[in-house]
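Aim 2, interim progress: modelling of the nicotinamide-adenine-dinucleotide-bound target.
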Amino acid sequence: MKIGLIGTGWIGEEHVKRLTGTISGAEVVAVSDIDAERAAAVAAIAGARVVDGAEKLVDDPEVEAVVVTSWGPAHAEQVLACIAAGKPVFCEKPLTTEAADGLRVIEAEQAHGKRLVQVGFMRRYDPGYRQMKAVLDAGGVGAPLMAHCVHRNPDSPESYHSDKPMVDTAVHEIDALRWLLGEEFTSAQVIVPRSTANRFPDLVDPQILLLETASGVRVDVEVFVNCRYGYDIQCEVVGETGTVRLPDPAAPLVRSGGRASYAVVQDFPSRFADAFDVELQAWVDSVRAGAPAGPSAWDGYAATVVTNAAVEARRTGAVVPIDLPERPAFYREGAP
Ligand SMILES: NC(=O)c1ccc[n+]([C@@H]2O[C@H](COP(=O)([O-])OP(=O)(O)OC[C@H]3O[C@@H](n4cnc5c(N)ncnc54)[C@H](O)[C@@H]3O)[C@@H](O)[C@H]2O)c1
Ligand SMILES: O[C@H]1[C@H](O)[C@@H](O)[C@H](O)[C@@H](O)[C@H]1O
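Predicted structure of the complex, ligand included:
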């Protein structure tokens, strides 16, 4: 499958390396970025062409499928261009930063009549999250009542402002919990503790997101993106008869100097390397077999409706109701 990739930044480069060196059945033939130097450097990794402009890349006759790894606000128009061209597209999270744009994407895809979009919610491919899902689906802890989540990054750049903890970061937990619990969220509230001194001025950090699902499950998500000590992802679901907790990545326990310790992972590329590999291989395989089968444009849209409510909740201090329309039949299990 001949792939064109838009956005050759951090994760764009990671995915080009992955698609070139690890994933079978695919090759990156063209890349595009508003930063021509970045595009040329990343194109060289794959021996790909640089195409000047995202629209041109989508319409390039050699490109059979597209990977979108540009900035979040650019995703909507790029994914819509892929749908207009009838080309399958893997779009990194978030599908869109604004819910209204997500609605345009699901409407365009339904009008096309066949699934074309997959969203990069890679946690669904992480072995630990999959083990949790298997326990929950088997009723291993009874009916879920609560979930406690932690999403900590060691630091964040100056461009990372106060909406991003919800739009860019908690969006992972929002999708993972929708998937683990099998239901949608109905309200969001954001609590703001004292902020850390280790942050840029335009950022409120940490933030605590409180969500409620349709059946009354309560979920809390601590987002702390300047925690300094490492990249730490935690998740525990509490049910009527037990709890299930996301395992930490396996690491050797070292006993030395009077202490027993193990290292904490430092960044997301290492924490989720296996999940990214499995995710992209599954995307390539499913597209070659006819249509993408992973997280859909509906999942991307539903998550953005929640992040937008969470941003409003932080700004107003209110409990914000989440007004998600009914899931269209097109996006139900077994639909095209
Ligand atoms: N799944 C994950 O865990 C994960 C991890 C990191 C990033 N991401 C997502 O991937 C996306 C990119 O993140 P990043 O960390 O690589 O950011 P980045 O800033 O390193 O890279 C973004 C690139 O997109 C380019 N770009 C911006 N607008 C463009 C446009 N209109 N057309 C073409 N190129 C454009 C920029 O020049 C830059 O090179 C974001 O949506 C982010 O949320 C996901
Ligand atoms: O784009 C990144 C990425 O999604 C990481 O997985 C997350 O931990 C960061 O907070 C976010 O900025």
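The two ends are 21 Å apart (CA to CA). The mean pLDDT is 97.
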